[in-house]
Amino acid sequence: MKKTLVTAALFTMLTLPVLGQDSQYWTQQFGTRTALLSGAVLGGADDNTMIYYNPGALGFLKESSISINANAYRVESIKVENALGDEADFKSSRLGSVPLLAGGMIRTGNEKWKVGYAIIAPVDFNFKAIARADGNFDLVDDSESIGDEETVAEASITNRTSELIVAIGLGHKLNENWSVGLSNLFTSRSLDYQRSLSTYIFLNDTENSLIGGNILQNADYFNIRYVAKFGVVYQKNDWDLGLTITTPSLNLFGNGTVASNIAVRNLKLIDDNRISGVATDRQSELKTTYKSPFSVALGANHTFNRSHVGVALQYFAGIDLYDVMKPAPGSFVRPIDLAPQLQSDEFLSLRSGAKAVFNAAVGYEYKVSESLSILGGFRTDMSYYDQDLNDGAGIKPTISNWDIYHFSGGVTLNRKNSSLSLGLLLSSGSNNSYEQTGGFNPENPDLVAGSTTISKATYSNFGLLLGYTFYFRKFSLSGDAPSSD
Asked: What is the annotated signal peptide range for this record (predicted)?
């Protein structure tokens, strides 16, 4: 179908921080030294981040500490090409900051038992973008409208996904070489998603007739789930080895709302007759289910001379497609006799799932002096997005289905009662076969569900990491005697 573009305009809205992604497990790293090593610390680290990485290492901790790790300044950018055919892209970028972990250790009076706690924000994803195309396109057969039709199309997406983990860890030192542990992870997940598409086409007839389509989808929910992580650490001489096993999640409770509204005016759907109608429903207080996969991780850390090297590997199992919420079937189209076979549960469905992924990390530290260390790390961050979620109707909120590669580097300054880490974070990812749904494609317009196109999506991040650990009680966890400095 030929087209002639007269004018095209793109409006891009800057967003709140795009911190974290919505289809990766390793986007964020926690703690100070740990973040600069890119999480390659499964063999153990001397702070309470082990509650998250490997609770087996808690038994070897000697001091009580509280730590906060923050990305003080961070610029992330997402671009999805061809949100409205070839005419406009989705772009989202923002400068922001957010604390990622706070926690500490509790004195037990027994040097072989350690208890820790942490509050962790592994996901804080915020994407908001608007694209608009305004021009003349040949969209209607010349028998009805000769020449190009004046057209205005606008699409928007808003996705705010966040998770907060409250973790309670328990570690037990078996002997000088072995320690085991268990972390109880209670995760709260929330989603607020909106997608809209409005298209207006003016025919070249005597009435300048209007053809229009409007789509609006909404989904919001929260969910609480529980995960147990078991860990074991073996330390001898200059070697530290770690193993963790994380259980599939246990769904606890949650609820949410889904809504969909489709309106068409003077549109040809089945035959040559133009019709108008709406398809709309909203269902609230629906029970929610959200799942985390089984995973197993293995890591090794080795110290020699002034250097320290760490490697971490983690496998995440897949999750079969499932319904996050289960809307009830019911009449969706008005007037009802227009399409009685279409039911609400199909258009309001919100599904999730995950493919199996494997991630790897490597970190290096060089100790310049007792008070100064230089650190660097690299890790993969494969997307677990299952492409089968693209099939069928329903609400599809996932944005970031691309693989990401992270680089980190910086320094740690150690003092008697505290340590300060400063570093740079660089991340990049792309998908050259990004399936963009719900847009406007002049070559193949669909005013009911929106057009689906294969385009390119890119992600980039530049951040300045500021991490701080404060030893608020410079005592051994097993008693009142001060620990050695």
From this structure: 1-20
Q: Are 94 and 78 in contact (CB under 8 A)?
A: no
Quick one: average pLDDT of 81-110? Answer: 64
Q: Three-state DSSP class for 40?
A: coil
44 with 240: CB under 8 angstroms? yes
What's the pLDDT at 135?
A: 85
Report whether pLDDT(268) > 90.
Answer: no
Quote the pLDDT of residue 97: 56
Instruction: Count the residues in the chain.
Output: 485
- Collapsing DSSP states into helix, strand and coil, what is residue 344? helix
CA distance 373 to 367: 4
Fold of 33-476: Porin (2.40.160)
What's the pTM? 0.85
Name residue 68's beta-bridge partners. Answer: 102, 468
Render the burial of 270-304: b for 16+ CB within 10 Å, e for the rest. eeeeeeebebbbebeebebbbbbbbbebebbbebe
Q: Read off the DSSP letter of residue 439.
A: E
Half-sphere exposure for 284 (CA within 13 Å, toward CB)? 0
Cβ contacts of residue 88 below 8 Å, gap of 6+? 8, 9, 10, 82, 131, 132, 133, 155
Q: Would you state the pLDDT for residue 484? A: 36
CA angle 380, 381, 382 (to 5 degrees): 110
When pLDDT is cut at 50, 70 and 90, the band that residue 289 belongs to is: very high
Beta bridge partners of 357: 316
Asked whether 210 and 265 are in contact (CB, 8 A), the reply is yes
Which phi and psi angles does 336 have, rounded to 5°?
A: -60, -40
The one-character DSSP state at 388 is G
pLDDT at 353: 95
Q: Which residues pair with 424 in a beta bridge?
A: 409, 464
Mean pLDDT of 219-242: 96
Peptide bond into 99 cis (omega under 30): no
Cα–Cα distance, 382 to 177 (Å, whole number): 34
Domain limits of the chain?
A: 33-476
Q: What are the distances in angstroms from CA 118 to CA 51, 99, 104, 167, 248?
A: 7, 12, 7, 5, 20
* Residue 59 region by backbone torsions, left for phi larger than 0, else alpha for psi between -120 and 50, else beta: alpha
Closest C-alpha to 429, from 18, 131, 68: 18
Alpha helices, H only, 54-207: none
Distance set, CA 464 to CA 34, 73, 97, 172, 228 (Å): 15, 5, 10, 36, 32
